[in-house]
């Protein structure tokens, strides 16, 4: 009987314990941990494995460094223009005229001699074409000589509208060797336009309306004033006498009525076709005081188209290597 009473008391105590709130809450927590324990363990193992692999990778790549992240850059660029604005800007730039940039001589900025500015504000070597020390201003409808770079040696202004050559056009051009102004409307040339050029050797002024040739330096080797209006008074007396290096003298299609003597011994070619030369003297080319004198250089004399009869003065050619070309009757 005593054993039965103890069993009942123990049973009631156990029942009371299970019925208490604290025990039921702990049972719920135990149940929750049991149901999620396996998942957490697996995730934790995966995370640990990833961390292990990452640390192993750091160990295998010694070039990789872990540092602080740099601060963000807050200097944001300005917002770009819209497509319409960009198109308008391109059209504006295309409509704007090109502005010449003046480059000082010898500056090395472009490798091309730009030269001084013309009256229109454009450097000569943008208006013309400059190749080395040669300046080409051909067929540009020029009515005046543009400023020429001081280093110029050869100047060409053919097929333009020039009407006059001024002394200032070639002032201080100490290196200028050749001037070619073929086929313009030049009717007059200042007297000192060429005489102050110490290096000038060649002047081509053909196909113009020049009636008088100015004084030329003694350094000349070629003079071509063909197809002009030069008459007897248009050439200085003994204009070519002191030109010891003169090789070519071309005065074709003018109004000359005489051969402009004396001519230097250096002369090789003399063209006087279609002038008004009516007579020739025996000492025009030869020296009557020295019958042994021979002018070997002068091999080309053109007198055709003149009213002179070459057969009337046979002694005038005895010192020449060839007889002049012209009428013999």
Structural account:
The protein has 329 residues and is α/β, with parallel strands linked by helices. 23% of the residues lie in helices and 9% in strands. The protein contains 4 helices and 11 strands. The strands form 2 sheets. Strands 1-2-3-5-7-8-9-10-11 form a 9-stranded mixed sheet. The longest helix is centred in the N-terminal third of the chain and has 40 residues, at 21-60. Residues 27-48, 50-82 and 92-113 have low confidence and may be disordered.
Supply database-style keywords.
23% helix; two-stranded parallel ribbon; 329 residues
Compute the average pLDDT: 77
Q: Taking Cα atoms only, what radius of gyration do you get, to the nearest Å? A: 52 Å
- Which range does the strand content fall in? 5-15%
Spatial strand arrangement across the major sheet:
1-2-3-5-7-8-9-10-11
Q: How is the main sheet built?
A: 9 strands, mixed
Run of helices and strands: HHHHEEEEEEEEEEE
The proportion of residues forming helix, as a percent range, comes to: 10-25%
Task: Name the structural class.
Answer: alpha/beta
Query: Outline, from the CA principal axes?
Result: rod-shaped
Number of strands: 11
Supply the number of helical segments: 4
Q: Distance between termini?
A: 187 Å
Taking pLDDT < 50 over at least 5 consecutive residues as the criterion, the unreliable ranges are 27-48, 50-82, 92-113
InterPro entries: Leu-rich_rpt, Leu-rich_rpt_typical-subtyp, LRR_dom_sf, LRRNT, Mimecan/Epiphycan/Opticin
Subcellular location: Secreted, Extracellular space, Extracellular matrix
Pfam family, one: LRR_1
Family: Belongs to the small leucine-rich proteoglycan (SLRP) family. SLRP class III subfamily.
């Amino acid at each position: 009987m005593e054993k039965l009473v103890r069993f009942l008391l123990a049973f009631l105590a156990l029942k009371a314990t299970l019925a208490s709130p604290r025990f039921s809450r702990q049972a719920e927590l135990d149940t929750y941990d049991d149901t999620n324990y396996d998942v957490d363990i697996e995730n934790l193992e995966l995370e640990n494995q990833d961390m292990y692999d990452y640390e192993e990778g750091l160990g295998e790549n010694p070039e990789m460094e872990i540092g602080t992240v740099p601060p963000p850059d807050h200097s944001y660029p300005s917002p770009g223009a819209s497509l319409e604005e960009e198109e308008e800007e391109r059209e504006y730039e295309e409509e704007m005229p090109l502005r010449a940039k003046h480059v000082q001589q010898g500056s090395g900025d472009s490798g091309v001699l730009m030269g001084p500015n013309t009256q229109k504000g454009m450097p000569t070597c943008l208006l013309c074409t400059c190749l080395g020390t040669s300046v080409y201003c051909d067929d540009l409808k020029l009515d005046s000589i543009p400023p020429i770079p001081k280093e110029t040696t050869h100047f060409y202004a053919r097929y333009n509208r020039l009407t006059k050559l001024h002394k200032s056009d070639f002032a201080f051009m100490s290196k200028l060797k050749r001037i070619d102004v073929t086929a313009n409307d030049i009717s007059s040339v200042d007297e000192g336009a060429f005489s102050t050029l110490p290096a000038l050797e060649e002047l081509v002024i053909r196909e113009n309306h020049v009636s008088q040739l100015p004084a030329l330096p003694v350094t000349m080797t070629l003079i071509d004033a063909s197809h002009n209006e030069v008459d007897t008074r248009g050439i200085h007396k003994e204009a070519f006498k002191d030109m010891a290096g003169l090789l070519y003298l071309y005065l074709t299609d003018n109004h000359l009525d005489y051969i402009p003597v004396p001519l230097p011994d250096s002369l090789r070619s003399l063209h006087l076709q279609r002038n008004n030369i009516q007579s020739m003297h025996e000492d025009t080319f030869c020296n009557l005081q020295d019958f042994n004198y021979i002018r070997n250089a002068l091999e080309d004399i053109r007198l055709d188209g003149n009213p002179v009869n070459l057969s009337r003065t046979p002694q005038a050619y005895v010192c020449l290597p060839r007889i002049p070309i012209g009428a013999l009757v």
